[in-house]
């Protein structure tokens, strides 16, 4: 067993394919879908940041820079798989099929934003760090028990690896050989704390060794590497090969959230350097150009489509019925306990509402 | 066809069981009836649980349904959440309530909130079993009685039977409940007595207390291991001519306020007995319920006889920590002679 | 030589500070005075804390004393225990009280028990700081107000200032206290107002409430962010001719029972305001204190105006969750008109 | 970085030295001290089990079979080091210098049993599994800050590695390069759960890789291997080399505690096999015989001495003043809060005692 984890790439910074074995699998359709989804979630992300600045959205956690990780992994999922995201993984959930309007609602403090459509296996974003990791283990254990071929993926950051729940979740999944993929986005920071202070470990992938679990370290800005490695991990899980830990090495360009000021703790020029050299979109663009897939018209068309889609979602969010005070009381239990019923009744009476 | 529903034959036979046997019987009943039910925890499998609460289940239902887990409470509860939202009904054992703290985050931020966070789309119909309480000379921390840490957590129900009949009925009700239930088992009375328990399936309603003794002078309220202690005090009071109304609360959230109000409005006096620390203990909630429902009826201040505001001690001192019939009796006399 | 002790010159100069600045000032004062004091937590170093409570300390005291830790609450508290028994006085920041749950086991089974377990041989003179509460449109879980989970835990004190002066004085008292102290900081009032705060060192005694307003009709009891809400209600009541006695509890364990008893024995009526859930909330303890000390004085049932028995909601509904002056006023009217 | 961890031995089952490099370090005095301490704690352990059976002691956690791990590691410590044991490590604390009578008191439910002598850095046994691991990290961080050469050792079992606190503690120690040794006794079981169900990992030592921490897997029944490897780890820590994880592979012959019945879940004949082949004492005896250190008279003498010491400790424990109810109230805070003072006063009054 080797404990060294070089960063795997499939397509390099210049958009050149590094491993011929992928050649056939990389269809124009696949590449365009990568490009499309990255543009889509980036557009969403920027819009959300700007809405927040205008006071039209609450505190927001942007993911710009990490799109390849989120899109590549989400596209590798099957519709019937489970996804357990954090507050920064709506790029992944949007790609997986979460509603855009609902996602905006979430960032406006609306519980409706946590609710997946019927049949969608999208867990509400985990806010307490790392807590979703054992959930993914459990959901995957359940799929295995049911005898399906479905898997579960949990997203989490570099900071999350320091929590006990990371460890307990991975241990459970490995003991029960659950079809789970633990997808780490190592974006270099947990708010202000750089990964070098978060751990003494040189990589996150090597933490898989503690569980005799396959660990993979990939370039998280290389959507190709993300997609193929996630696919492989998922397939291994579906076929009884147990869980995998993936470390996608990436970078968050902006603030931790719109309430954070990265200039306090790091050199923001690094974001610009990366944007100009290792940006996920740039790389696909180069790949497309290198391979004759680049089509200005198509790019123009999807850019406009996406822009319309995002605008429409914002409109729908803003026209969404106001938060309903009943929802404060009505979903704690299937049927409210007397304490809740009484409190609700008194409160509604006081505020001149009807129950 | 639909009209001719099969009448579920319920056994009317009964059997003598201790409380812990009744718990096992409740688990077995539901494991048989509903294949979504799973039992998991530390040593619940081959070993049958450190108290033998899952004795025989591994042999009967196999390791697919009676699952020994790693020593990892957050893992047990976290994985149970994942299984519960994905179609199963896990009954997770926490070996002792004093070892539930590592899972506190999972219970507080997920078990109790998932239904609300998803407006009912997802729910976590799971049961968390935990033996609790002092009085069996167990090592440190094993003896904590911290129900109040869970009753102050909206989204989970808390039950605590004191008899074999209630234990089985509440277990079945808890497993069938669409919401998470913390099921507290007093170790001290696991085998303290036997009682006739019906075979097969029946439920005891969650949220309802039980009147154990009728009396008009003072209301005594207790649960779990404090029920026999309180009953003994009531007997002694009787010899002094004081008639006690004794309530076994059985469910700690939501508390049966009606049974309390009805009783104290009759007696005008109340003594609450619990083994948890006084400050922050559930006794305070009951004082508030009486304040809210029965202020004008009260003839004397309510007395609380509780564990002290000190960590549950090592066992050489645990008898001093725990409420005794003597302390309860003293409180009864105090409220009566006010 | 020993006879000529240097007289510690205490500054009498004051300075206008917000509550959060006063907290920083308290930390700085003690970091200067006692080199055993360390500050540690997530983002407390270069970033100066997500709320800027440790702003400037890293620059002034260096990374040896202002320590950015991994994202690991059990690690933070567990390592602080090791440091505290080994000669240091850690001031650990938990970024939000809602993220303290992973450390609950360490606090419950060790922070609060080490002195008792070693009969005083070892102690854990540490402070745990935690911003808490709703009202700032923070994301989920960030807004929990769970003081009662710690007041039901013998071995740790809990304080919760509502003003800059008290915040600094209580911070210094907490750091000097030989026992562990949970220091709760209401985010909602971090910067809500400024107040004259003395420079240099002074303490506010742990365990003492503060009278904010004198009145004879009803006693209002609150802490943290609920203090301004309650004061506003008291003002409105005044316009109806109802005079409120307002108590800022400041310390949540041990509660200043005397200030409460004295007040309710004068007014005969009480309204308790807190943002935590009602069931299991500290309000119940206060009801019990009144029951125990002042039963015969009470003219009406005590009212509790609290957060509801529901998880603190996402922020679109948080204003509905939180007690408002209107709700407090209604309760005042209710107890007065009983 | 290699991720394979063979079990290291210094002296094999037949009492033969495997590595000449230790030859000079293994003095007769050292070997006799190993032998002495193993006999001593084994005598204690058996006495405690028998006292429990007679109802003269509470539930007790025996360690027979694990003596080499506990003695070898404890003898490697310096007097000023810290020790963070579990409920099963009184073999280690007794060797380190804890009082025998106090240790018995502990198992009789007496808080006095948790109190170390002045100057002794012995933490009370951790009952909640793995919670002591971050304490050791913190105590070691404190020693480093003070600039001493002292280290801290935490003991824990195979089951403990599944807890979040194990992970968080090791991560802290590695990030802050604290002089801590994490000493695992892999006795094959956590109560009834075999290590194969506890983890998918083939070794516990490999878990060190997650923290870029040295990990060592040793024969925990080989007191020589335990002693020298612990010494090396401690020295590395003292000299700024950070923490080490040691996995000592051993076996618990008897029940988990006197309240447990191992026949329910495992084949107890394995204990007998190990006792006859790999027992810690047997091995030293063979080594001593092979090297001319064996001296029947000396063995006889220490056996009697130890037996007297244990009997005296039992007597002292049984003559110890009865538990004092004041101790229930007096040590929660430096000065009792009013709630405690009032409860104490009322209780003493009721029970006819004076405060
Ligand atoms: C248990 C817990 N502790 C602290 C926080 C506060 N917090 C929110 S995000 C964050 C940093 C997370 O870093 P990382 O895991 O790397 O994810 P990223 O934000 O970089 O995507 C912290 C400390 C939290 N949400 N939960
Ligand atoms: C947090 C916690 N959970 C559960 C227990 C109950 N318990 C006591 S010992 C034990 C097994 C420990 O196994 P291991 O760590 O291998 O140590 P060993 O007993 O084998 O020395 C368990 C589950 C506990 N003490 N603490
Ligand atoms: Mg990160
Ligand atoms: Mg073990």
Automatic annotation (TrEMBL), chains A, D:
Q: Where is the Dehydrogenase E1 component domain?
A: 41-325
Key words, A-Z: Oxidoreductase, Pyruvate, Thiamine pyrophosphate
Q: Which domain of life is it from?
A: Bacteria
One Pfam match, by short name? E1_dh
Which EC number(s) are documented for this chain?
A: 1.2.4.1
Q: Which cofactor does it need?
A: thiamine diphosphate
Which chemical reaction does it catalyze? N(6)-[(R)-lipoyl]-L-lysyl-[protein] + pyruvate + H(+) = N(6)-[(R)-S(8)-acetyldihydrolipoyl]-L-lysyl-[protein] + CO2
What the protein does comes down to: The pyruvate dehydrogenase complex catalyzes the overall conversion of pyruvate to acetyl-CoA and CO(2). It contains multiple copies of three enzymatic components: pyruvate dehydrogenase (E1), dihydrolipoamide acetyltransferase (E2) and lipoamide dehydrogenase (E3).
SUBUNIT field: Heterodimer of an alpha and a beta chain.
Name of the protein this chain belongs to: Pyruvate dehydrogenase E1 component subunit alpha
Q: Which species is this UniProt entry from?
A: Neobacillus kokaensis
Gene name tied to this protein:
bkdA
From TrEMBL, chains B, C:
In terms of domain of life, where is this protein from? Answer: Bacteria
The cofactors required by this protein are: thiamine diphosphate
Q: Which Pfam families match?
A: Transket_pyr, Transketolase_C
Q: Name the CDD domains on file.
A: TPP_PYR_E1-PDHc-beta_like
| Ranges of residues in domain Transketolase-like pyrimidine-binding | 17-192
- Residue ranges the record marks as coiled coil: none
Signal sequence bounds:
none
Write out the entry's keywords from A to Z: Oxidoreductase, Thiamine pyrophosphate
Give a yes or no for keyword Oxidoreductase in this entry.
Answer: yes
What InterPro entries is this protein classified in?
THDP-binding (IPR029061), Transketo_C/PFOR_II (IPR009014), Transketolase-like_Pyr-bd (IPR005475), Transketolase_C (IPR033248)
Q: What is this protein called?
A: 2-oxoisovalerate dehydrogenase subunit beta
Q: Which organism is it from?
A: Neobacillus kokaensis
